[in-house]
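cron nightly-structures :: item 1 of 1
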Amino acid sequence: MTQPSTISVERLTPEIRKITFSNPPVNLIVGETVSRLLEVVTELSEDPQVHVAVFTSSTPGYFFNHFDLGRATDFIPSDPEATPAWIDLVIRLSTAPFISIASIRGRTRGGGDELTLACDLRYASREHAVFGQPEVAGGILPGGGGTEHLPRLIGRDRAIEAILSSNDYDADTAERYGWVTRTVADAELDGFVDGMATRLASFDKAALAAAKAQVNRATLPPDADLRAAYTQFLTSMTWPGPQAFQAQFEKLAAEKGPEELELRLGHYLGIARQESR
């Protein structure tokens, strides 16, 4: 596999692959990220040896973060009739014939959180993982499965809280809500994930894939709902609200610095909203 700068794939064993994301300083998702991940998931799905894929990050403080809306054109399909690449990715990942494990150390929000929700298992650093769906505070809508996956995992009321508040949620709260499979002490996270991947990789692949498919029948949202959400996300970016809010948020970014804003994005979204009234 070739390896563009933001995504690398490592063959840990014949059955286990490790996919590492790196787009410093804050791991924003860009068009290259989406196209490469889609390519990787497709390749791994077609490889009969692959039992488990572990998704991780090499950028301190960040897992997969939100879309880079400064490059919004990256996420607009060239063919309006085709399934958007991002939706194709999350569908392929959640239905892939291998087990996907997100090893989360750092912030994962928006599209990054939606990719995480499409994974089969989500293990998070108790000290350092942070989750959020920040779109509504910016005047737009989630578009990659957040509004479809979260209610099924954490319930309607908690999903409404998380999505409408656009706030950051620490790992302990995410575990209590059911947002992640479990939290693990940061020093133990890598060993725990390695142990789970090794255990699953020792099982028969046909049994793993068939059992996953059984669970999927009871839990995954319809593909049509995911496509509809993405269409609504694109539409929301043309509303006047996001454009008016952007100026206030850029002013705050100039004062605080973009990296400080990303560290406490939920907090600063609230401040920017209050100051824009």
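cron nightly-structures :: done
Residues 154 and 178 are 5 Å apart (CA to CA).
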